[in-house]
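Notebook, bench 3.
Goal today: get a predicted structure for Glycosyltransferase from Salinivibrio costicola so we can plan the truncation constructs. The sequence was checked against the plasmid map this morning, with no discrepancies at the termini. Length recorded as 368 residues. Pasting the sequence as submitted so the record is complete.
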Amino acid sequence: MKTVLHIITSLGSGGAEGVLYRLCAHSNNYKHIVINLTSKSFYNKKLEALNVNVYNIEMDKNFFKFIEIIKIIKREKPDTVQTWMYHADFLGGILAKLLGVNRVFWCVRNSNLKFGQSSFNTILVSKICSFLSYFIPNRIISCAHVAMDYHTSVGYKKNKFVVIPNGVEANTFYYDREMCRVKNEKKTPTIGMIARFDRQKDHGNLFQALKSISQRGYEFKVRLVGRGINNKNQELSKLILESGLVVDTDVFLVDETQSIRQQIDKIDIHVLSSAYGEGFPNTISETMACGVPNVVTNVGDSAHIVGDYGIVVPHSDSQSLATAIIEYIDIRKEKRDWEILQKKCEERIRLNFSTITMVDKFETVWAE
């Protein structure tokens, strides 16, 4: 069996990490090994449960530990190296080529990088990678069309790109008719957003919209889930206070959790209010797979994911966001129409964004 060595910048709860995990869980044609450039994190236990050998290099503590990568590549002798995100593309790609690995594949996910929004270091590394893209990778895999378009516009070699949308884990994220029925019986809807607290996700835009909805006389609850979503977050606490909502009465905060499905089952309408930087937001496809309609900003491939079964609004426009959420609150009152929409959301994801399809596409690219 051939071996794929993955090199990734972290194993936190991000989208790239989730895709890597699903590849390892569902790929039957390759042995998978993972080098994590930083410390142990969210996906370590999950990968170890699959008996995947994971090396945690901790380069965030000591840059010169990159020597460990050289030792691992020499010892494991992988047929293919798949790198994830800019720093891993840069470092892992160069080391793999220097050590004689002929099959090197990059993965890029961002839909844009801007000074003041992304770190200078990340922007610099991406610029270097745009030059190296002509020499290092066999192919560059992108999760979103908008991410491919952005990278080719800043100099990446266009004919090396292939788009493989993220697949949804069907055993975890699926339509539960009884759960949806129970939720639909509730009078007060719960508006949720599953996203780490980050400028990119624009929680400020969300709370401006929620304030407007409240001022128009609508009743609702709010459930926020993700890294940094907790009472210690002073910036988030200020946003909630300014919106006129109250923590633990109107707004429920859930920090990073491995029980995402349990949180989705408590949400009626999912919102992603991102301002920039999205590629393929997994939370949209995962919630839709469970029958949760989405309101999203037109960032990354969000509009492509929801298709005809979600509402897309301009980013950084809280009034448009508020109007869209209200539209779904009103539709939800018509139970039959809402149930049809829930099922259509599930069908769109099942038919277009399955994990099995994603794995097949990765393996096809690796075998070219």
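The mean pLDDT is 94. Residues 177-352 form a domain with the Rossmann fold fold (CATH 3.40.50.2000).
Flagging this for group meeting.
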